[in-house]
Write a structure and sequence with these properties.
By secondary structure, this protein is mainly alpha-helical. It is built from 5 helices and no strands. The chain has 2 domains: about 30 residues, no CATH class; about 100 residues, Four Helix Bundle (Hemerythrin (Met), subunit A) (Up-down Bundle), CATH 1.20.120. Helix content is about 70%, strand content about 0%. It is globular.
Length: about 140
């Protein structure tokens, strides 16, 4: 009887730990870790001007991947980076027709994340979608 009680106690103690480890490892929606380029690796013009906001969005996505919410600091940063990118896209001097669609996709995805965070209907997949849009823009911007 003692053996059964010990086994049951062990399962009760270690069960949540094993489930937590297994469940987080099984999250196939997470992108592979990414080595971020330097801002100097971005093409001149809109890309170079947008390098820091783009790279900051990558760091925000990595910090919050899979989380059920986003910190207040990162929420503020999302709004700031969205405004910076919108301003770059609106500037005729830095406008590049080939970048207009991926830039619009990224700023729209940021907007969805922010709206759903404010409405308390946020899902981690929204941040992953934002990061996919960020990766698409970044890949067009690298030298």
């Amino acid at each position: 009887m003692n053996v059964i009680l010990r086994a049951a106690a062990l399962v009760l103690c270690l069960g949540p730990v094993a489930c937590t480890a297994g469940c987080s490892a099984a999250d196939a929606g997470s992108p592979a870790p990414e080595k971020l380029p330097a801002a100097a690796d971005f093409r001149p013009g809109l890309c170079r001007s947008g390098a820091e906001p783009i790279l900051e969005l990558a760091r925000i996505a990595a910090r919050n991947d899979g989380a059920r919410t986003v910190s207040a600091k990162d929420r503020t940063a999302l709004g700031d980076r969205q405004r910076e990118l919108l301003a770059l896209g609106a500037d005729p001097a830095s406008a590049d027709a080939a970048l207009r669609a991926p830039l619009t996709d990224l700023t729209t995805a940021i907007g969805f994340v922010r709206i759903r965070l404010d409405g308390k209907t946020y899902e981690p997949m929204l941040l992953r979608d934002m990061d996919a849009a960020r990766r698409a823009l970044q890949s067009r911007c690298l030298l």
